[in-house]
Amino acid sequence: MTNRRSFIANVAGLAAVSAFPNVFAQATAPGSTEATFARIQRTKILRIGAVRGQAPYYNKDLASGEWNGFMIDFAKSLAASLNAKLDITETTWGNSVLDLQTRKIDVFFGMNPTPARREVIGFSEPLFQNAFTIVSKKEYKTWAELNKPEVKIGVDIGSSHDQMISRVCPNATIVRLEKADDVTLALQTGRIDAQVLVWLLSLNVLKKNPALGKMYVPMPLEATSTNIGVPKEEDKAWVETINKWIVAERTAGKIKPTVLGNLQKLSGVKPEDVPPQIPL
């Protein structure tokens, strides 16, 4: 139960945490003004942030101390392309922005580029698209079917789920709770009709509690991008290098199998459980 709470509440940032306070703008990078890419080339070390207990995104084996998850696999691939050693610093979804801004890390995988974040850090091109879905007992084929006062839709307040549904279904009764896990409980107890989650979270929730219903992908497709966060700097060599790596990974067809392989290995969700309309 603890792992599920932690995963849902925190990861919803992959997709779900939507903004950070402006206090981040007050932080300054320590000492060195060396450009990120120049430092990586010189030291042959790629420093990334990782979040404990966030499978299938990030996961740390308690016995061996080894990190895994699809974001770790992506980081290993990027490091290999740079002929660099991977140095992993444990962080949180909330602290990752500050870690980038203060140059404690060089990169953070799995971040949505909100306007507030763009003020203080840089971003790569999208790594993949994270489609919005709903978990419910009743099937909803379109967002228009949900956009009615009698339909109660649950979201974690202030999240990307909240932002999207407020824009797409303004006529629905939107129930805003503190955490995504609270919304899941509300769905389980019948207080709401549907919960909005990005597809990775929906599948993970349903794997643990199939009685909640099913995952549906209402049309037209609504999605948020999952990008890579980097320090904000005038030298664009680092973000350009990452963007070239993303193109190479996508051209080689590695994005989808990396995500789905970890989803099955760490969360027990099979590739065939993912609807074909989900983009990756």
Protein architecture, described:
The protein is of the alpha/beta class. The protein has eleven helices and twelve strands. It has helices at residues 2-11, 36-43, 70-81, 96-101, 115-118, 143-146, 160-168, 180-188, 199-208, 237-251, 255-267, and strands spanning 45-51, 59-60, 67-68, 85-91, 108-111, 121-123, 128-136, 152-156, 173-177, 194-198, 214-216, 223-231. Strands 5, 6, 7, 8, 9, 10, 11 and 12 form an eight-stranded mixed sheet that branches. A two-stranded parallel ribbon has the order 1-4. Strands 2-3 form a two-stranded antiparallel ribbon. A hairpin with a 6-residue loop joins strand 2 (59-60) and strand 3. It is globular and about 60 Å long. It starts with a helix and ends in a 13-residue tail after the last helix. Mean pLDDT is 88; it is low at 1-31.
List key phrases describing it.
22% strand, 280 residues, alpha/beta, single chain
Please outline the helices and strands.
Layout: H1 2-11, H2 36-43, E1 45-51, E2 59-60, E3 67-68, H3 70-81, E4 85-91, H4 96-101, E5 108-111, H5 115-118, E6 121-123, E7 128-136, H6 143-146, E8 152-156, H7 160-168, E9 173-177, H8 180-188, E10 194-198, H9 199-208, E11 214-216, E12 223-231, H10 237-251, H11 255-267
Parallel strand pairs: 1-4, 8-9, 8-10
Antiparallel strand pairs: 2-3, 5-12, 6-12, 7-10, 7-11, 7-12
Helix pairs in contact: 3-11
